Amino acid sequence: MTEALPPETGIAIPDDLSGITAELYRASMRHYPAGVTVVTLDSATGPVGFTATSFASLSLEPPLISFNIAHTSSSIQAMLSAESVVIHFLGEHQQHLAQRFSRSAEQRFADHSLWTTLETGEPVLHGTPIWFRATVQQLIPIGDHTLVVGLVTRVHDQTDEKPSAAPLLYYRGRYHRPTELDH
Description:
The structure is a single chain. The chain has 183 residues and is mostly beta strands. Helices cover 13% and strands 42% of the residues. It has four helices and 14 strands. The chain has helices at 22-29, 76-81, 95-100, 105-108; strands at residues 2-4, 12-14, 34-35, 37-43, 46-52, 56-59, 64-70, 84-89, 115-117, 123-125, 130-142, 145-157, 169-171, 174-176. The strands form four sheets. A seven-stranded antiparallel beta sheet has the order 5-4-8-11-12-7-6. Strand 4 and strand 5 (46-52) form a beta hairpin. The longest helix is centred in the N-terminal third of the chain and has 8 residues, at 22-29. It is globular. This is Flavin reductase (DIM6/NTAB) family NADH-FMN oxidoreductase RutF. Keywords: Oxidoreductase. Pfam families: Flavin_Reduct. Belongs to the non-flavoprotein flavin reductase family. InterPro entries: Flavin_Rdtase-like_dom, NADH-dep_flavin_reductase, Split_barrel_FMN-bd.
């Protein structure tokens, strides 16, 4: 017997998932390192942002990206209404931003010295080695999240100016910096 998710997901869930609990799945996924991004957007009530480790490149031509947002997120309604977003690739020196954007919504933009606004209205964080501005192309409800697909319309890359800026990684519930392996 299979329990179906809402029709827009197109995924059928078998009744028996062999003991795969949310806790087991979450604990296992902590062993897969991910780059840390902060997604920001402009909303009718002001700037909105959240930390996301689900960022992925989808296509080179056209330049498409994706990330997920939980249906329980305080930012979900703003995300569902957004026309564009800015995805910030955090550097190892920006752990404080990852933590800030994981906290309650009212604290995220409280320090005005950490961000400014683009001419298109989206908030952009200072000191981020790379950020993309993307227009929202698709919102796909899937499980307990929504998959956001965006078309990259602007790339801001300062890695040539700051070549030592290593990315911030999230692994086993903690923040890390990458280290090079010997050849």
